[in-house]
Amino acid sequence: MRIDVLTIFPDYLAPLELSLPGKARAKGLLDLRVHDLRQWTHDRHRTVDDTPYGGGAGMVMRPEPWGAAFDALLEAPEGARPTIVFTTPSGAPFTQEVARELAGRERLVFACGRYEGIDQRVLDHAASVGEVREISLGDYVLNGGEVAALAITEAVVRLLPGFMGNPESLAEESHEDGLLEYPVYTKPAAWRGHEVPPVLLSGDHASIAAWRREQAVRRTAERRPDLVHASVLLDDLEVRLVQ
Ligand code: SAM
């Protein structure tokens, strides 16, 4: 997979050089490039923003640097059609399902907004050179799209085939089966008066699986009843436990 990140704060993406994407790069799974959008400006002040048409507070990112950046990065006609991710609080929520979809793409380009956002025509133009995805990290407003690009990249890269030493660890994670993950424990078996649940020490794999399932359902019903019909599942479990 190739990932390009377009930002006016390339240093913000420095963590991408660290362990996770670094590991993916070493394995030859990821070609990651971070670009300073200002290199596609031509005035002395390297301006990327201007006042909004129609008035209002704040500044809007001008279209020209984005257009020039897309021309430079996406011009190779033989290359895979890119998926251009605009990080925005008005986008579709980022979920594990979206991460899986993006992990199947050959080419991702992140457009990190700043100020009041990017001139809409940049998105309209991007749709003519690639697949456009507008993605939100959550229902809150960040100062810029870089943190969202970091989070999305991390969630996507760990799903790349061949990245995880043990792919089974992915299957059991929160959100993979519509449930939050059960609580996990390691050694020692007793710590500061807190015991590991005895079933986990029993060696009885069927009982351990049943306990974990029950914990996952219970946790999901309590914390995120919106995720699945977890409360129904919980009812079902309680009926079976009582029997
Ligand atoms: N005026 C915009 C609005 O109300 O939707 C918010 C602009 S925000 C201050 C600047 C940039 O931060 C956005 O263009 C976007 O790239 C990024 N951003 C802010 N919140 C985000 C979120 N929840 N998810 C993804 N990106 C976000």
From TrEMBL:
The keyword Nucleotide-binding does not apply. One of its GO terms (molecular function) is tRNA (guanine(37)-N1)-methyltransferase activity. One of its GO terms (cellular component) is cytosol. S-adenosyl-L-methionine binds at G113, L137, G138, D139, Y140, V141, L142. Its EC number is 2.1.1.228. It catalyses: guanosine(37) in tRNA + S-adenosyl-L-methionine = N(1)-methylguanosine(37) in tRNA + S-adenosyl-L-homocysteine + H(+). Keywords: Cytoplasm, Methyltransferase, S-adenosyl-L-methionine, Transferase, tRNA processing. One of its GO terms (biological process) is tRNA N1-guanine methylation. The keyword Kinase does not apply. It is found in: Cytoplasm. It is an enzyme of class 2 (transferase). Specifically methylates guanosine-37 in various tRNAs. Homodimer. Belongs to the RNA methyltransferase TrmD family. This is tRNA (guanine-N(1)-)-methyltransferase. It comes from Nocardioides luti.
